[in-house]
Amino acid sequence: MAIGSVIGAISLSELQQYAPDQKIINPDRTLEYGNLQGSLELRERIAAMYSSPESGVTLSAENVIITPGSTQANYLVLSALAGPGDHIICQYPTYSQLFLVPKYQGAEISLWKLKRGPNGWEAGLDELKAMIKPNTKAIIINNPNNPTGAVLSSSILSSLVSLAARHPSLTLISDEVFRPLFHFPTPPPPSLLSLNHPRSAVTSSMSKAYGLPGIRIGWVASPDLAFLKRISMARLYTTLSVSQLDQAVAAVALIPSVTEKIMEKNLAICRRSIEIIGEFVERNRERVEWIPPQGAGVAIVRFKERDGGYVDDVRFAAALVERTGVGVVPVEYAFGEPEGGDEEFKGVMRIALGVEEGVLRGALGEVEGFLEGGEW
Q1: What is the pLDDT of residue 308?
Q2: What tens digit of pLDDT does each residue of 24-44 get?
Q3: What is the pLDDT of residues 337-362, one digit of tens each?
Q4: According to CATH, where is 3.40.640.10 located in the chain?
Q5: DSSP secondary structure, 116-178, as one string
Q6: Residues 6 or more apart whose Cβ sits within 8 Å of residue 257
Q7: What is the CA 174 to chain-centroid distance, rounded?
Q8: Confidence tier at 1 by pLDDT (50, 70, 90)
Q9: Which intervals hold domain Aminotransferase class I/classII large (predicted)?
Q10: What is the mean pLDDT of the chain?
Q11: Following DSSP, what letter does each residue of 66-77 receive, concatenated?
Q12: β-strands 329-330, 348-352 pairing
């Protein structure tokens, strides 16, 4: 079973079927550097995704910088945000880059932890307010969340914007690499950028929700042009430009009618996987528990020992792959605090939702046999 988080990776021929009237790759294109900020066509399509006339948000190509994947987009944003003497608040758990990069650059880090509640994952706003200090430079969120699949609601996002408005030196950052994969919320929450906060930025890419990790296209979008200029200057030291061919593919995938077809397919894949995992949890409810994901391309499940305590996630995952070939990601180890020891995530494993149905069913069958097999 794959442990990555890409949904429905597609071929050029499949993309062409979604856009029969488009020439994806123009053989007459001159392969020069191109626009250093990214192609105008691609940046305009990304800007349109975040524009919200009803909220007074109108972004243009100048509000977007193209990067080779969201990992670099995140790195550039985090590098521009803070350094020694600064304070960063980061949602937790999350892709560890979001709190480790500022930590290793000398910033103080506070983790805004999701908590298990009776109705799913809860994000405590009072706890967040208490974390803010005079030197707090940013609040970083990941929505939908990797690895939990939790989604911060529209009301929570609005509260974050109201909170940030009272702190002029504070920037809101949202890693939205799994947007628009929303499984249950109706309607889904808006992008952070659609809430019209002047000191905000979003990172994302074509890799996860759009199923195009092979083209290595990501971006930073923000209404704050001064902030984007700092990111653009830092980018010159890492990537002069991004492949014109990759950007051409991304531009076709982001035509609204094409995106709709991609998302219809990928959301169906996720719903099928959630149903299969739910059946697995129900069959093994004495040993397995979960909170079904509201969004993203991943889910987490928690495994128990026979005596009711939670398994050692690293030992469990290592023995599972050694004996069955099935790979899961131990969450506390891969996504937790560097010093470890977070009891909230003991025994928790991440499972990818983008796995082919037969592979997923077979892998979960192997896990059931492993649970019955005794000690590990």
Answers
A1: 84
A2: 999 999 999 999 899 999 999
A3: 776 667 888 999 999 999 999 999 99
A4: 25-255
A5: EETTEEE--HHHHHHH--TTEEEEEEESS-TTT-----HHHHHHHHHHHHT-TT-EEEEE-TT
A6: 18, 19
A7: 9
A8: very low
A9: 29-333
A10: 93
A11: EESSHHHHHHHH
A12: antiparallel
What CATH fold (topology level) applies to the domain 25-255? Answer: Aspartate Aminotransferase; domain 2 (3.40.640)
Q: How would you label 97-117 residue by residue, b for 16+ Cβ within 10 Å and e otherwise?
A: ebbebbbeeebbbbbbbbeee
Global pTM value: 0.94
Residue pair 67/238 in contact (Cβ under 8 Å)? The answer is no
The token pair at 354 is 């983008």
Torsion sign across C-alpha atoms 357, 359, 360, 364: positive
Q: What angle do CA 132, 133, 136 make, to 5 degrees?
A: 80
Parts of the chain belonging to CATH 3.90.1150.10: 259-369
Amino acid at position 117, single letter: G
| % of the chain beyond a pLDDT of 70 | 97
Of 39, 38, 58, 62, nearest in space to 221 by CA? 62
Residue type at position 122: E
Question: Which amino acid is it at 178?
Answer: F
Report whether pLDDT(8) > 90.
no
Which pLDDT does position 11 carry in this prediction? 95
